[in-house]
Amino acid sequence: MVTGSESSNSNSSGGWGTARGLVTKTLVLLGGALLLKRLTKSTTRWDHARLVARSLSGEKLSSEQASRDPDNYFNIRMITCPAADMVDGSKVLYFEQAFRRTPQKPFRQRFYMVKPCSKELKCDVELSSYAIRDVEEYKNFCDRPKDQRPLPEEVIGDIAEHLTTIYLRRCDRGKRCLYEGSTPPGGFPNSWNGASYCTSELSVLKSNEIHSWDRGYDDDGSQVWGPREGPYEFKPAASSSSNDMFYSPLNLPIQQSMEKRIEGSFVLQD
Protein backbone atom coordinates (compact mmCIF):
# COMPACT_ATOMS: atom_id res chain seq x y z
CA MET A 1 0.00 0.00 0.00
CA VAL A 2 1.35 3.46 -0.95
CA THR A 3 1.12 6.12 1.67
CA GLY A 4 0.25 9.76 0.91
CA SER A 5 3.83 10.77 1.56
CA GLU A 6 5.21 8.16 -0.81
CA SER A 7 2.71 9.17 -3.51
CA SER A 8 3.73 12.81 -3.20
CA ASN A 9 7.41 11.95 -3.46
CA SER A 10 6.77 9.75 -6.46
CA ASN A 11 4.83 12.50 -8.26
CA SER A 12 7.55 15.03 -7.46
CA SER A 13 10.28 12.72 -8.72
CA GLY A 14 8.36 11.93 -11.87
CA GLY A 15 7.71 15.63 -12.55
CA TRP A 16 11.38 16.49 -12.15
CA GLY A 17 12.38 13.63 -14.41
CA THR A 18 9.97 14.85 -17.08
CA ALA A 19 11.24 18.44 -16.77
CA ARG A 20 14.85 17.29 -16.94
CA GLY A 21 14.06 15.29 -20.05
CA LEU A 22 12.46 18.31 -21.70
CA VAL A 23 15.47 20.49 -20.84
CA THR A 24 17.88 17.89 -22.25
CA LYS A 25 15.83 17.53 -25.41
CA THR A 26 15.69 21.31 -25.84
CA LEU A 27 19.45 21.63 -25.42
CA VAL A 28 20.03 18.87 -27.96
CA LEU A 29 17.72 20.54 -30.45
CA LEU A 30 19.37 23.94 -29.93
CA GLY A 31 22.82 22.43 -30.28
CA GLY A 32 21.80 20.67 -33.46
CA ALA A 33 20.31 23.85 -34.88
CA LEU A 34 23.47 25.83 -34.12
CA LEU A 35 25.65 23.12 -35.66
CA LEU A 36 23.48 22.96 -38.77
CA LYS A 37 23.61 26.74 -39.10
CA ARG A 38 27.39 26.67 -38.85
CA LEU A 39 27.72 23.88 -41.40
CA THR A 40 25.34 25.49 -43.87
CA LYS A 41 26.56 29.06 -43.45
CA SER A 42 27.22 30.44 -46.92
CA THR A 43 30.46 32.16 -47.81
CA THR A 44 29.97 35.90 -48.08
CA ARG A 45 31.02 38.08 -51.01
CA TRP A 46 33.80 39.58 -48.92
CA ASP A 47 35.03 36.12 -47.90
CA HIS A 48 35.71 35.41 -51.58
CA ALA A 49 37.61 38.68 -52.01
CA ARG A 50 39.73 38.06 -48.92
CA LEU A 51 40.58 34.52 -50.05
CA VAL A 52 41.69 35.72 -53.49
CA ALA A 53 43.82 38.48 -51.91
CA ARG A 54 45.49 35.97 -49.59
CA SER A 55 46.11 33.53 -52.44
CA LEU A 56 47.76 36.20 -54.58
CA SER A 57 50.03 37.36 -51.75
CA GLY A 58 53.56 36.05 -51.29
CA GLU A 59 56.54 35.23 -53.44
CA LYS A 60 55.89 32.93 -56.40
CA LEU A 61 58.20 31.65 -59.13
CA SER A 62 57.87 30.28 -62.67
CA SER A 63 61.15 28.33 -62.23
CA GLU A 64 59.70 24.87 -62.80
CA GLN A 65 57.90 25.91 -65.97
CA ALA A 66 60.99 27.73 -67.29
CA SER A 67 63.14 24.66 -66.73
CA ARG A 68 60.61 22.48 -68.60
CA ASP A 69 60.13 24.86 -71.51
CA PRO A 70 62.92 27.49 -71.67
CA ASP A 71 62.04 28.45 -75.25
CA ASN A 72 58.64 29.79 -74.28
CA TYR A 73 58.81 30.80 -70.60
CA PHE A 74 61.19 32.91 -68.56
CA ASN A 75 62.26 32.31 -64.99
CA ILE A 76 60.28 35.08 -63.32
CA ARG A 77 59.73 36.05 -59.72
CA MET A 78 56.29 37.41 -58.85
CA ILE A 79 55.70 38.96 -55.44
CA THR A 80 52.52 40.51 -54.06
CA CYS A 81 51.64 41.89 -50.64
CA PRO A 82 48.97 44.03 -48.90
CA ALA A 83 49.47 47.77 -49.34
CA ALA A 84 46.26 49.50 -48.19
CA ASP A 85 42.54 49.14 -47.51
CA MET A 86 40.01 51.34 -49.25
CA VAL A 87 37.09 52.91 -47.38
CA ASP A 88 34.66 50.43 -48.95
CA GLY A 89 36.75 47.47 -47.75
CA SER A 90 38.53 46.76 -51.04
CA LYS A 91 42.05 45.38 -50.61
CA VAL A 92 44.91 47.16 -52.40
CA LEU A 93 47.89 44.88 -53.14
CA TYR A 94 51.28 45.84 -54.51
CA PHE A 95 52.48 43.53 -57.30
CA GLU A 96 55.79 43.29 -59.13
CA GLN A 97 57.64 40.91 -61.41
CA ALA A 98 61.37 40.57 -62.02
CA PHE A 99 63.79 38.02 -63.40
CA ARG A 100 64.64 35.48 -60.71
CA ARG A 101 68.32 36.39 -61.02
CA THR A 102 67.71 40.12 -60.50
CA PRO A 103 64.76 40.52 -58.09
CA GLN A 104 65.92 44.03 -57.17
CA LYS A 105 65.15 45.21 -60.72
CA PRO A 106 61.42 44.70 -61.32
CA PHE A 107 60.23 45.16 -64.89
CA ARG A 108 56.53 45.21 -64.04
CA GLN A 109 54.88 47.03 -61.14
CA ARG A 110 51.17 47.38 -60.47
CA PHE A 111 48.57 47.96 -57.82
CA TYR A 112 45.86 45.31 -57.61
CA MET A 113 42.47 46.15 -56.16
CA VAL A 114 40.46 43.17 -54.94
CA LYS A 115 36.77 43.41 -54.11
CA PRO A 116 33.53 41.45 -54.52
CA CYS A 117 31.74 41.64 -57.84
CA SER A 118 28.68 43.86 -57.87
CA LYS A 119 25.46 41.90 -57.57
CA GLU A 120 24.41 42.41 -61.19
CA LEU A 121 27.58 40.71 -62.49
CA LYS A 122 27.84 36.93 -62.78
CA CYS A 123 31.10 36.62 -60.87
CA ASP A 124 32.45 36.50 -57.33
CA VAL A 125 35.58 38.69 -57.27
CA GLU A 126 36.84 41.65 -59.30
CA LEU A 127 40.60 41.88 -59.65
CA SER A 128 41.59 45.24 -61.18
CA SER A 129 45.11 46.39 -62.01
CA TYR A 130 46.23 50.02 -61.87
CA ALA A 131 49.35 51.88 -62.87
CA ILE A 132 51.52 53.49 -60.16
CA ARG A 133 52.29 57.22 -60.27
CA ASP A 134 55.97 56.87 -59.30
CA VAL A 135 57.15 53.29 -59.69
CA GLU A 136 60.64 54.10 -58.38
CA GLU A 137 59.15 54.81 -54.96
CA TYR A 138 57.71 51.30 -54.83
CA LYS A 139 60.55 49.11 -56.07
CA ASN A 140 60.88 46.04 -53.82
CA PHE A 141 57.98 47.29 -51.69
CA CYS A 142 57.18 43.81 -50.35
CA ASP A 143 60.82 43.07 -49.46
CA ARG A 144 61.20 46.18 -47.29
CA PRO A 145 60.44 46.44 -43.56
CA LYS A 146 56.98 47.92 -43.07
CA ASP A 147 58.37 51.14 -41.59
CA GLN A 148 60.29 51.74 -44.84
CA ARG A 149 57.29 51.42 -47.15
CA PRO A 150 54.98 54.22 -48.34
CA LEU A 151 52.09 54.62 -45.92
CA PRO A 152 48.61 53.30 -46.85
CA GLU A 153 47.31 56.82 -47.45
CA GLU A 154 50.26 57.46 -49.79
CA VAL A 155 49.53 54.21 -51.61
CA ILE A 156 45.93 55.25 -52.21
CA GLY A 157 47.10 58.63 -53.51
CA ASP A 158 49.53 56.93 -55.92
CA ILE A 159 46.93 54.75 -57.64
CA ALA A 160 46.97 55.94 -61.26
CA GLU A 161 45.00 54.92 -64.35
CA HIS A 162 42.95 51.75 -64.51
CA LEU A 163 44.51 49.12 -66.77
CA THR A 164 42.46 45.90 -66.67
CA THR A 165 39.84 44.04 -64.66
CA ILE A 166 39.56 40.26 -64.40
CA TYR A 167 36.21 38.83 -63.28
CA LEU A 168 36.74 35.69 -61.20
CA ARG A 169 34.23 32.98 -60.38
CA ARG A 170 34.43 30.08 -57.96
CA CYS A 171 35.53 26.88 -59.64
CA ASP A 172 33.21 23.92 -59.71
CA ARG A 173 33.75 21.16 -57.17
CA GLY A 174 36.34 18.63 -58.20
CA LYS A 175 38.42 21.11 -60.18
CA ARG A 176 41.98 21.92 -59.19
CA CYS A 177 41.33 25.64 -59.03
CA LEU A 178 39.53 27.77 -56.45
CA TYR A 179 38.76 30.71 -58.73
CA GLU A 180 39.23 31.40 -62.42
CA GLY A 181 38.26 34.15 -64.81
CA SER A 182 39.30 36.61 -67.46
CA THR A 183 38.88 40.08 -68.83
CA PRO A 184 35.76 40.73 -70.96
CA PRO A 185 35.92 39.31 -74.53
CA GLY A 186 37.05 42.64 -76.01
CA GLY A 187 39.81 43.05 -73.45
CA PHE A 188 41.17 46.49 -72.58
CA PRO A 189 42.97 49.13 -74.68
CA ASN A 190 46.69 48.52 -75.07
CA SER A 191 49.11 50.07 -77.54
CA TRP A 192 52.39 48.38 -76.71
CA ASN A 193 54.34 46.63 -79.48
CA GLY A 194 51.62 47.22 -82.09
CA ALA A 195 48.72 45.99 -79.99
CA SER A 196 45.32 47.65 -79.92
CA TYR A 197 43.94 45.66 -77.00
CA CYS A 198 45.01 43.07 -74.43
CA THR A 199 43.35 40.21 -72.58
CA SER A 200 44.16 38.47 -69.30
CA GLU A 201 43.20 35.11 -67.84
CA LEU A 202 43.85 34.10 -64.25
CA SER A 203 43.41 30.95 -62.19
CA VAL A 204 43.85 30.70 -58.42
CA LEU A 205 44.73 27.12 -57.51
CA LYS A 206 44.21 25.36 -54.19
CA SER A 207 47.98 25.14 -53.61
CA ASN A 208 48.31 28.97 -53.75
CA GLU A 209 49.64 28.53 -57.27
CA ILE A 210 48.70 31.27 -59.73
CA HIS A 211 48.31 30.76 -63.48
CA SER A 212 48.40 34.01 -65.44
CA TRP A 213 48.06 34.52 -69.19
CA ASP A 214 48.36 38.05 -70.62
CA ARG A 215 48.29 38.65 -74.37
CA GLY A 216 48.16 41.60 -76.76
CA TYR A 217 46.39 41.70 -80.14
CA ASP A 218 46.41 44.07 -83.09
CA ASP A 219 43.40 45.43 -84.96
CA ASP A 220 43.22 42.25 -87.05
CA GLY A 221 43.08 40.02 -83.99
CA SER A 222 46.62 38.70 -84.44
CA GLN A 223 48.62 38.15 -81.24
CA VAL A 224 51.59 40.52 -81.03
CA TRP A 225 52.86 39.89 -77.51
CA GLY A 226 52.50 37.42 -74.69
CA PRO A 227 53.09 33.65 -74.40
CA ARG A 228 51.38 31.54 -77.03
CA GLU A 229 51.56 28.06 -75.49
CA GLY A 230 49.59 28.74 -72.32
CA PRO A 231 49.62 30.68 -69.07
CA TYR A 232 52.59 31.33 -66.83
CA GLU A 233 52.57 28.99 -63.83
CA PHE A 234 53.70 30.73 -60.65
CA LYS A 235 54.26 28.42 -57.67
CA PRO A 236 54.98 29.48 -54.07
CA ALA A 237 58.70 30.07 -53.64
CA ALA A 238 59.03 27.52 -50.83
CA SER A 239 58.29 24.70 -53.30
CA SER A 240 60.97 25.81 -55.75
CA SER A 241 64.27 24.01 -56.01
CA SER A 242 67.37 25.87 -54.82
CA ASN A 243 69.27 24.10 -57.57
CA ASP A 244 67.28 25.82 -60.32
CA MET A 245 69.53 25.73 -63.37
CA PHE A 246 68.40 29.16 -64.49
CA TYR A 247 69.44 30.65 -61.16
CA SER A 248 72.84 29.03 -61.05
CA PRO A 249 75.87 31.31 -61.75
CA LEU A 250 77.16 28.54 -64.01
CA ASN A 251 74.21 29.21 -66.31
CA LEU A 252 74.46 33.00 -66.29
CA PRO A 253 74.88 33.19 -70.12
CA ILE A 254 71.60 31.29 -70.52
CA GLN A 255 69.71 33.78 -68.38
CA GLN A 256 71.32 36.79 -70.08
CA SER A 257 70.40 35.37 -73.47
CA MET A 258 66.82 34.92 -72.32
CA GLU A 259 66.70 38.49 -71.04
CA LYS A 260 67.69 39.74 -74.48
CA ARG A 261 64.96 37.66 -76.07
CA ILE A 262 62.39 39.13 -73.76
CA GLU A 263 62.42 42.29 -75.86
CA GLY A 264 59.07 42.16 -77.59
CA SER A 265 57.57 39.96 -74.90
CA PHE A 266 54.71 40.88 -72.62
CA VAL A 267 56.73 41.29 -69.47
CA LEU A 268 58.44 44.66 -69.96
CA GLN A 269 55.31 46.73 -70.16
CA ASP A 270 51.75 46.43 -71.36
UniProtKB/TrEMBL annotation:
Keywords associated with the record: Lyase
Family classification: Belongs to the CpcT/CpeT biliprotein lyase family.
Pfam family membership, one: CpeT
Keyword Lyase appears in the UniProt entry: yes
UniProt-recorded name of the protein: Chromophore lyase CRL, chloroplastic
Top-rank taxon: Eukaryota
Keyword Nucleus attributed: no
InterPro entries linked to this entry: CpcT/CpeT, CpcT/CpeT_sf
PANTHER family per the UniProt record, alphabetical: CHROMOPHORE LYASE CRL, CHLOROPLASTIC
GO molecular function: lyase activity
Organism placement in taxonomy: Eukaryota, Viridiplantae, Streptophyta, Embryophyta, Tracheophyta
